[in-house]
Amino acid sequence: MAGAIAVAGSGTSVRRIAVIGGGPGGLYAASLLKRLDPSREITVFERNAPDDTFGFGVVLSDETLGGIEHADPEVYRALGREFVRWDTIDIAHRGRTHTSGGHGFAALGRRRLLEILHERCAGLGVDLRFRAPAPPAAELAAHHDLVIAADGVHSATRAAHADAFGPSVTEHRNRYIWLAADFALDAFRFEIAETPYGVMQLHGYPYAPDASTVIVEMREEVWRAAGLDTCDPAESTTRCAKFFTEALDGRPLRGNRSSWLAFRTVTNSRWSHGNTVLIGDAAHTAHFSIGSGTKLAVEDALALAACIEEQPDLPSALTAYEAERRPVVASTQRAAAASLRWFEELAHYVDQPPRRFAFNLLTRSRRVTHDNLRLRDASFTAAVEEEFGCPPGTPPMFTPYRLRGLELRNRVVVSPMDIYSATDGLPGDFHLVHLGARALGGAGLTMTEMVCVSPEGRITPGCTGLWNDEQALAWRRITDFVHTSAPGAAIGVQLGHSGRKGSTKLMWEGIDQPLDSGNWPLTAASPLPYAPGVSQVPAELDRAGLDVVREQFVTAARRAASSDFDLLELHCAHGYLLSGFLSPLTNHRTDAYGGSLAGRLRFPLEVFDAVREVWPGERPMTVRISATDWAEGGTDAEDAVTIARAFAEHGADAIDVSTGQVVPEERPEFGRSYQTPYADRIRNTVDVPVIAVGAISSWDDVNSLLLAGRADLCALARPHLYDPHWTLHAAAEQGYTGPGAPWPLPYGAGSRTPPTGRTDGPKPRLTLG
């Protein structure tokens, strides 16, 4: 975010500026640009009257206020005189209220915020035109050097130039309404109401000594079942007050042109077009549950004004503005999307233990985590840890976990990672060192790469296998090392068949690209190439072929047992053979193994049952699935729940929840912990443990996911490539030395962070100059 706005650049030659929209973002941009150069002619067009405003209170963060303080101390002082401040969050659910402190909020009335900005603009000489709809942006652009489109979520400017801005507007499935109460809540309050119609939630916070904002939200089907879709605004307001009598202490709510809305997430591929630029909700929106709408608009205004002052011309300024703001906005939108989804799925969490539910709510966006919540409110976090079952002084990730007869010493899993370093399927020294190092590094469970059940089931010539006894003996060498040299560590094998994604080059030679020579024939659920025109067309497995493949899995499982693996995972993800049966995008069969999801599940379940029958009963068996194909018409989150439930009913001890890699046209929503919501949903819908994967990169993420009840185990890949001793280092960084992360005896001297060069030498007694 742009900080102090008195920058050294000479500024652009932007003299005449039109601002479309008189909300906080547009007004603040106008005041900053006028303050930087009083000779500028700046006009703000606002279709409403000065005292018209929607909503009630506005929450601003310390970061945003810091930027305002540096850029315009006068506005900062005026805001400071109005703020209501508090630092606690109350979560009320099933007759109990849990309070977490140390959060820090500042709020004021939206109307008062606008008044302060009106006064500032008028004092600087900005031309404020109320009850004046703006001319079209194209018309303004012809007569102004810069047009700032701050015209909100329903931006006419964005719509008129959609071909240039490339907007995407996604409407979500919850309904909500902005209301107010004529008293001040003493905390940011979340209250859950379990009604005959379904689960409803209240978000409330004070914004004045005698007033609070109250947002009531629920799934659309709950809204309709309650009859709120047919209520007028007054009746909706009355009924909402009755749903939340505890939070309101029986007092009424009031509206302000309030109506039921469905939140819209707005993104744009570009934020500027010629000399027109989008800011605030016109450019992007973030769900109200993380309170970022006004914050983002104000920060946009700060950055835009700074870039105009710093850069030599307007095109450079607009490019710099977007480059500065887009990563910040994208991060906020990811957090907001996580929060939005959490509230959409609220009904899945209401049966959690009370403190876990509260912790889950507080950490829903992943911006508040276990570690910083412990700093904010140590007593609350300690109570959550105790309820979870953490022994004293033990972080959640170092609590043991049992799957059948296997007790894992901690919750960290080294995720399967294809190494592509085998010869004829035989694991060698590289595999011994790779897997052995990570087992020595402290993880509770270390997984092999996908071990192929047949030569033709390999992905590449470098894949390992378990189709002969020589390979089984080579694997036994590795499991013996883990069990002997890393006592208490477990090692698991992932069995799979490449299906239509086989006979390709090593990853670093060309991922998913066919071999130049020496290709082997492929089989799959349907004769569909992975990459049309590039990949080999696989043969559709007939009845005899299905039987052969099933028996290959069974034989490999027997060898895995003799190799002394502690756990077996069946690979039904990432577009490989069994995954190819599950996805409607890759299974076009018309027999009993295609069609409905029940049909598509049939063969993977047959393989699971056959493997489970020969896998030792005391050893656990897990299944990895792709919970979404990230592609239209493919497997989605609802299907994933059904798939997970089916495997659980057949005896799976845990579901390893990954996503994607099924079709090349996928469009993943990458980001921190981006796959964990799918594990979360399965865990809190189906009675089965889950392993969460997907860009989990810190021990704080692991602790947060476990403590919130979103996962039972966390699997990490890239962090373990970067640092084979990731788990032991995570223990050292948290000051943990217990049984969940024992250092190998030869490594004991390395259990403390090595000292570094001194940087705290004596300061000079005198400074002369």
UniProtKB/TrEMBL annotation:
Residues 397-731 form the NADH:flavin oxidoreductase/NADH oxidase N-terminal domain. Residues 742-769 are annotated as: Disordered. Residues 144-333 form the FAD-binding domain. Pfam families: FAD_binding_3, Oxidored_FMN. InterPro entries: Aldolase_TIM (IPR013785), FAD-bd (IPR002938), FAD/NAD-bd_sf (IPR036188), OxRdtase_FMN_N (IPR001155), YqjM-like (IPR044152). NCBIfam families: PRK08255.1. This is Bifunctional salicylyl-CoA 5-hydroxylase/oxidoreductase.
